[in-house]
Design brief:
The complex is a heterodimer of chains A (114) and B (107). With 114 residues, chain A is mostly beta strands. Chain A is built from no helices and ten strands. Chain A is globular, with a radius of gyration of 13 Å. Chain A starts with a strand and ends with a strand. With 107 residues, chain B is mainly β. Chain B has no helices and eleven strands. In chain B, the strands form two sheets. In chain B, strands 2, 4, 5, 6, 9, 10 and 11 form a seven-stranded mixed sheet that branches. Classes of the chains: A mainly beta (114), B mainly beta (107).
Chain lengths: 114, 107
């Protein structure tokens, strides 16, 4: 069974970087697409970006140069880094498989606050 | 970016009723449209992909239809576990975009 699990700090200070890990079991990240999605308070959902089976990436232009998604195939993990965070980046962050998301992690709530 | 306009924002219905949720894309997305259900404190769950294909394990009372820019999710004979939030999603082209959601509440 495919399982994804996010991990990372739940509190980040403004202007710092948010770093999350998605650990995948039951399926190799060298196949398919692996993405990050966030849900804001108020329930808006935003796709942030993905990393493909080949390691290529695609990002939401709204995040401009703040975002980076990388991977470690030896650990079957992929990572999100979001730089220069503000309070508007407070959200629940999910990792998921594919471009139509058939498997999701349980989500991690991240609060940006001093 | 492809904008997804979802309606209604909220919906109140009784057990056993049938409800329909609509999603309008700002351009043709060639049926690359997904529907998700999300319950409080849980991650979204895929219900429908490619506009009308039922994801594994999803009850047959859920169905999707539409083409081009107009899509809908229908839930027949509402069960207690169906009261949740629902989202549509453009899967055609990046940036992948979601509708604003529909909260289905019990009447």
């Amino acid at each position: 069974e495919v399982q994804l699990q996010e991990s990372g700090p739940g509190l980040v200070k403004p202007s710092q970087s948010l770093s999350l890990t998605c650990s995948v079991t039951g399926y190799s990240i060298t196949s398919n697409y692996w993405g990050w999605i966030r849900k804001f308070p108020g329930n808006k959902m935003e796709w942030m970006g993905y990393i493909s089976y080949s390691g290529s990436t695609s990002y939401n232009p709204s995040l401009k140069s703040r975002i980076s998604i990388t991977r470690d195939t030896s650990k079957n993990q992929f990572f999100l880094q979001l730089n220069s965070v503000t309070t508007e980046d407070t959200a629940t962050y999910y990792c998921a498989r594919r471009r139509v998301f058939d498997y999701w992690g349980q989500g991690v709530m991240v609060t940006v606050s001093s | 970016d492809i904008q997804m306009t979802q309606s209604p924002a909220s919906l109140s219905a009784s057990l056993g009723e049938t409800v329909t949720i609509e999603c309008l894309a700002s351009e043709d997305i060639y049926d690359i449209l997904a529907w998700y259900q999300q319950k409080p404190g849980k991650s979204p769950q895929l219900l429908i992909y490619d506009a009308s294909s039922l994801h594994t394990g999803v009850p047959s009372r859920f169905s999707g239809s539409g083409s081009g820019t107009q899509y809908s999710l229908k839930i027949n004979s509402l069960q207690p576990e169906d009261f949740a939030s629902y989202y549509c999603q453009n899967g055609l082209s990046a940036p992948l975009t979601f509708g604003s959601g529909t909260k289905l509440e019990i009447k």
